[in-house]
Amino acid sequence: MSSSTNEILHFYVSEQLNSFSREKRCCMKYMGHLFEIDPQFFAKIVKDLRLRMRPHIDNNGQESVVVFKDKCSHNTAEIVDLKLTTESLKDMYRFHCGSDFCGSQQEFEMSSDFFSPGNVPPTVPPHRFSLGPLKQSIARCNEMGQQSFQRKSPMQRYKQMILEALSRSRVVVVNGGATFGKSTAIPMYIIEQCSQEKRHCKIICVEREQLVAIHNSELLAGHFHEKVGETVAYQVQLQSRISDSSNLVYTTSSFLLRVLMGQSIMDSFRHISHLVVVDAHLHEAFSDLLLRELKVALKYHPYLKVILLSNYSRNYEFLQYFGEGEEISLEMNNDMIKNQVFYYEDIRKILSESAPSVGIRKAFKTLPISLATGHSNNNNDIQTNLMQLDKCLETYERTAHDQCFEFFLYMVQGEQANINHRHSVTGRTILNIAAMLGKVEHVKILLHLGADPFITDKLDVDALKVAISMSNLECVELLKVAYFEKSPQIKENHIDNLLILDLINMLTTKNDVWIRGNIIVILPSYQHLIQLNYTILKEKLLGSLPQQISIFMLHNHTEKAHLDAMIASDPKVIKIILSTDIAETLMCFDDLQYVIDVARQYRTVFDSETQCKKHVYEWSSKQNLENRRLLVTQNGGGACFHLLPLEQYKQLPEVQTPDLLSKPLDRVCLAVKLLSQHTMVSEYLQETIVQPPFTKVYQAVEHLKKISVFTDLEDITWLGCRLIDVPVECHLGKLLVFAILLQCLDPILTIVSFMTTLDPFETAHYSDDLLEPHRDIVRQKLKNERKHFAEGHLSDHLVLLRLYQEWQNDLRDDSMDSIPSGYNFTLNGLLEYVCNVRTQLVGALRSSQLIHNKGNLSMHYINLKSNCWPIIKAALVGGLYPSVCALDSQCNRLKSPNKHELVLHPDSVLRDLSLDSMRDMHFKSPWIIYGQATKSWNWNSINCNTVAGGLSVALFAGPTKLSSSSSKITTPSNATESSECLLHIDEWICFKLAYNEAALLLKTRQHFYNIYVNYLQHCGLLEKFKRPNVTNSTTSTSQNTILIDCIEKILVQEDLANGFPQPERIGLRPKAVPNKLMMTLNGGMLMAPCLYRSQFQTSAVSKNMPTPNNVPVPQRSKQYFMVYRKDLNDVVGVDMIMNTSSLRHSEWFHLLNNLLDAKTDCNRLTFIIFYTRHPDLLRSVYMVDWNKGYLELYPCFKFNINLHCVL
């Protein structure tokens, strides 16, 4: 190359690097040839500009150079060293010398066939359920039963109209309210007509939820006087009752699509005559995919009929999408809409000042709230964060820098600080200061985030006044609008349990206005069901609510037997059903008088900007509220209470946002690829009735490529084929696969069950209106709980394991004789839910044949390493990749390839609540695996973290196909075998180590992934994984076992060498759960006999008066006895208080026996409250009753109880 050319290239490189040094970007990639022209010149320019550089290799082996600044949030200052112990190197070398799977013992290069064992292209595994052949519909055995159903059905007058429309059109949209029972009536009409005309009939009815499909099939089979599985059947995940002669099959959209996968469009629908899609207007993600399949199927199957059921009046989009069809609108009778509707303002007027919540709030305000938690450093954490906020406000007021404002917003979103924090001296909030400075954009953001414009400073000046005084007219206009809008608004994430309790009390106790009746409460999520359940049960046990109340919980995981108990009519019981939005779809209750609707929903959405999934509260749509109101229209005369202002109701959207526009798309993209393997995902989704944004689709596809569900060319892999039957997010399904291969499934199953549902220590589960001013105290105590379960280990995943183990150890059938404290009750309810999810996951793994009942994939065999914590961490690394980051010790910041910088979430055990704890982080390894990321303004907070060793990252992170021939090991040109080299795991993860160590490590990694691919390809073959005899063991099976043993040994050695402690007994097999505490408590098993006795009930029984449901409940007076016992401050006292027989020998017991009279009025309730030295903490509460002349104590609450929970 000529000197002039060199000068031009030098000038070009110099200008490029100088331009980059002045830009805001923190790093930039340069092609490798620019560096190779003159490496010394390139390095000199980088050094002179005070920049850094490091080599970079992409997945295609293309070399480049990354230049970055000191403040870069992606690249560590130095490449991480990987130092292996001599024992680990010897163990790996012995393993490879003992096996000849790739040539000679000294050869480190892998054969080309090694990376594609068998070279078999992935195929969709066959599903064990099928729809069966078409059968001619035969005459029903009981026509009277059908006619009886049809006479009662409001659909009867539209029967002929619907059948005539089906004879004319292939697509029919039926629009009508949820009370019409469309999904049961229309299939019955079709079966009846096909029977009369002797035509073939196979109807598939697609419901939203599994529980709804099972219920409707049993309901309709009952009208046919048959068992489920004959004429009417159902098929859902892990459950099926069907026969070849079934004419009507209830299922879900996700399950039907799974059955259709792997079939051609010609074969997919040839057995189906009619397909009914329920609630098509809601645009559930898999329902929209099914509509696309139906649109194509109509071209090949001229006799296929599509029936779309909708509750929304604007259904022209369906007819336009299919290009044919007609719509039938069903009109309600006036008799069906008699119930009254009340909004927030009306409810406040109805409730009296004597409502229970008024007394509870007054009592709570008088209670001392102790800040002492036994950990003084936690109090210092709170004070430190408050000082940080004060300092930030001072700097922002003085300099008006945007960085101060961004830091404050991070404290609000990332550190859970109060957005209305007032400066400890001036009393000003961030909104006051922004208005004073004239920061219009800042004021907009703060008002959007919920900042209160009414707060004044120490001089009694609010944000509007200070904006007027500083002549900031734009801020004045914004604040004036906020003044008018702020007062009637209610936050989406605010659920007022005390208001709901007041309504329940009003509707179930003696009242001249409201007739006592059954109530359903619609709540956004399961955790809200638990919280309200405890609130109601507590009032019932204390006698504030009638004892005829029976509490039920209805959600997606409710068993069918429990649903039947809710539906069954019992005039002696007042039913209170706590339900999620599944009640809208069921519409199976005939005896509900009242609906209490919080008008919210809890959804998982995807933020395409930060690429984070988050759980959000949203207002429900008007259509949702209408469906909930109709829950009481069957018998008329009821009432519906919407807990939102009328003005806010008018602003609600007509229907909810379609799933394809808001929810994560990884499972959707996987389903699309298996439905149409030769079509690009983005092209397929552009043909659906709702088209998701291209950027969201692209990001989802790239994520699936990163975790090896798709190839780089967007073809399906064996991993993707297997994960379709595992009902969790794809990266969690991959985590389960790694757990099976590394023989540690049980601990990983528990972790995945938590990660796919909820965080048991989330502050929102345990706080309410009363505790909101003391939110920091609640956070402190939950943080202490996390540290207790962490046992000094740097792992949030271990916290989940230990919590589940302790819960299982405390479960005893004889321990459910009283209600625990609010914290224990809520935690127990959450863990029961996690246990249900865990059980379903095991069933899904068996159904997908990822695990077997016998052989090398039996539960016993794949849990042999469950007691080894390094193996569990290795599984977490492989499964959660690419969620990996590294701590840069030079700047004490987390570095990752993500767009936004990562910070540790304050709930993680890797840091304290104080922000200062992140300024001096020292871990035994720089590598951190995280399971969740949430947006915290310009940062992403990571939670569910575990510090992992470098060897685990080198072996299990990165793509599954990694070869030494792809330039993954880079060395200088004059390197010897023992010189240092760089091992590139992916485009970002890189290690510095000796060349021979890198080659040995790479070979071990390749051997493991050979097992990985073989397992995914052949796990459905039972004979291949049949456990052989030791004498006849095959070479591959024995080598696989030896490899896993070798990996276990070297991981343990490296962890010990790096100073990681080893937890004990983490692999305990979970036991079967005994009688569930929630159902036992709600079933009324714990009531003292005195609660069931009253003068009214006695006279009613003797005179054959109406049932207790029509008898007014007398108001009972209460008396309390406070008993202080010194021994209750000790652990021994806890055991004594749980043994009621030991109380009879106490002096206070005899004194109480003399004070009370056995002939005391039966309407008076007497409670014994045991308290300790802690002023805000009770130990237990007992109820007093007389039994054959003897004083008896019945436990109501046990363990540590906050005083306000009782008062």
UniProtKB/TrEMBL annotation:
Stored InterPro entries: Ankyrin_rpt (IPR002110), Ankyrin_rpt-contain_sf (IPR036770), DEAD-box_helicase_OB_fold (IPR011709), Helicase-assoc_dom (IPR007502), Helicase_ATP-bd (IPR014001), P-loop_NTPase (IPR027417)
Record bears the keyword rRNA-binding: no
ANK repeats (start-end): 426-458
Keyword flag 4Fe-4S: no
Domain annotation Helicase ATP-binding: ranges: 163-310
GO MF assignments: RNA binding
Keywords per UniProt: ANK repeat
PANTHER family in the record: 3'-5' RNA HELICASE YTHDC2, ATP-DEPENDENT RNA HELICASE
The protein's name in its UniProt record: Helicase ATP-binding domain-containing protein
Provenance organism: Musca domestica
